[in-house]
Amino acid sequence: MSKDPIWKRFASTLDTSEEKDFALVSLVSKEGSSYLQPGARLLVRSDGFYIGEISAGCLEQKISSDTIDCIRKREHKLLTVDTRPFYGCYGTLTLLIERIQNIRSFKQLVHEINLATDSRRAIRLITNYGDLDKCQLTTLGSHCNAECSCLTQTIEPPIKLVTFGKWPDSCASIAIAKQLGWHTKVFGDNETLLSQFRQEIDERTALLIATHNLAQDVSILRAVLDSPFGYIGVIGSKRRWREIENAICDLNDYDLIQHLQRVHCPAGLDLGGEGANSMALSIVSEIQAEMFGRDGNRLIERNLPIHSDSITP
């Protein structure tokens, strides 16, 4: 079962709900520790149903009760939550409860966000929590007025995982990617389809070559090494990688050879375990680390805050 990105889930809830009174809860700022970062969102319906997350699950029920009150009073509200006395995260969160006054306009906003991410475009949201008299506080925009208290959030398209080969390890990798809400595409062993896909390649697209066939691995790499993939991995041993390197070097194509350093082979992090599922977990973990500019080490060894330099998924 795949996990759709949060704005997709918002769209589905808005489209299928008979109840039309909603509020959007946005984490707009924080001090100290926080499970999620500013930009986390929760959509709350007037009957108490909610979707999304603004914490590890410890705040949502409480906040939804406050939100229902705002829906009934037809007002926005800025809420400060000190998590230190009650929860595992020692910090203070500022939450904006934005009562959706124009459901049609909000649906259009959600549609524009999903349209952008489906088209592999980044899109910027501005949430103005300094002027609660405005009708709609979360809008599309390029920058925030310096005189206002605003949250500026860039929503990137989801990571996309593309695989060549339909072996258990690549299929398991696709299954985990779907759980993470990534876009996926499977080419099987038909490398000729790549030419039709080239215009869709971007820096948030990962390629996993899993044909388990030396000639096919070399052929696919020749076609993709100069493409703007954010990650290129090949399932195989170190010995297999030496064979691939030698085969490509024998082509005497210097431009091709200099791109070999981009390739992760054997693909994956050293997590241990046996079998296709363990290998897939290792591979998807390496892709995630690469896309977020991390080294894949243990968090206990990280000297910087856990969430620093993070990218909105």
List the helices and strands and how they pair.
Elements: H1 6-16, E1 22-32, E2 41-45, E3 50-52, H2 60-73, E4 77-82, E5 91-99, H3 103-118, E6 123-128, E7 138-140, E8 150-155, E9 160-164, H4 168-179, E10 183-186, H5 194-197, E11 205-209, H6 214-224, E12 231-234, H7 238-249, H8 254-257, E13 263-264, H9 275-291
Parallel strand pairs: 9-10, 9-11, 11-12, 12-13
Antiparallel strand pairs: 1-2, 1-5, 2-3, 4-5, 6-7, 6-8
Helix pairs in contact: 1-3, 4-9, 6-7
How would you characterize the overall build of this protein?
Strand 2 and strand 3 form a beta hairpin. It is built from 9 helices and 13 strands. Helices cover 32% and strands 22% of the residues. It is elongated. The model has no long low-confidence stretch (mean pLDDT 89). With 313 residues, it is an alpha/beta fold. Strands 3-2-1-5-4 form a 5-stranded antiparallel sheet. It has a 5-stranded parallel sheet with strand order 10-9-11-12-13, with helices on both faces.
